[in-house]
């Protein structure tokens, strides 16, 4: 932290924010292990995901600042900053992998078993057995054929539903992919705008300090000019005033010297 402060205050500030997020992620995942309720686990996981997004944005800001100052740094300093950035990326990726692991575990817990049949199936089987015992062979054959036809129609309807579902799923996946790419571009643009605003704010502060310094210099020069003008006015009004030294160019003319032969 101190070494980064000597290189750039902006880098030191971003590094401190990233370190705070990493500590919050570590504590958050430790807390997640102790939570038993799946709903609370989901909410905790969403909060940790949001922190990871913020950390990713800060790492991008860190990378931009490094590229912005790398021309005036020594090669060893640039190498150290790049290694620092890679270390941040590796630590963030470890938390992303941990988040995927917890998300997969939660998904398995919340999966609904779709193969459970309705209660009372055994009663329907006994009733069908009683009806079959009172039928003739031809009736049994006709009933079997009818049931097979109904089963075939049900299978065809299921195939159509599956095909429609696959089509809808493909369209949804394509739309989600397009929206994800659009959101990624928007996030990158927002990150760039945020970084530009920071740089502009820093530049405005520097300009403000320079303007304040220029104003102080102008005020000092103005006071000097007023003093000179006041001395000139006093010398004009009272040229015999001995309290004010003569200003070069405004001193009274020297007495003309008489030549030696004129005196004689």
Report on this model:
This protein is mainly alpha-helical and about 260 residues long. The chain has a domain at about 1-110: Methane Monooxygenase Hydroxylase, Chain G, domain 1. Helices cover about 85% and strands about 0% of the residues. It contains seven helices and no strands.
Concise account of the structure shown:
With 264 residues, the protein is mainly alpha-helical. It is built from 7 helices and no strands.
Give keywords.
about 260 residues, mainly alpha, Methane Monooxygenase Hydroxylase, Chain G, domain 1, 7 helices, elongated
List the topology elements.
Elements: H1 2-7, H2 9-34, H3 38-69, H4 75-110, H5 121-133, H6 137-237, H7 260-263
Helix pairs in contact: 2-3, 2-4, 3-4
How many helices? The count is 7
- The share of residues in helices is over 70%
Largest sheet: none
Give the name of the CATH architecture of the domain at 1-108.
Answer: Up-down Bundle
Number of β-strand runs: 0
Q: What do we call the CATH topology of the domain at 1-108?
A: Methane Monooxygenase Hydroxylase, Chain G, domain 1
Please indicate the percent range of residues in DSSP E strands (runs of 2 or more): under 5%
Rounded Rg? 44 Å
Which descriptor suits the 3D outline?
elongated
Structural class: mainly alpha
User: Roughly what is the average pLDDT, rounded to an integer?
Assistant: 77
Ends distance: 92 Å
SSE series = HHHHHHH
Give the CATH class of the domain at 1-108: Mainly Alpha
Unreliable stretches covering 5 or more consecutive residues: 111-130, 254-261
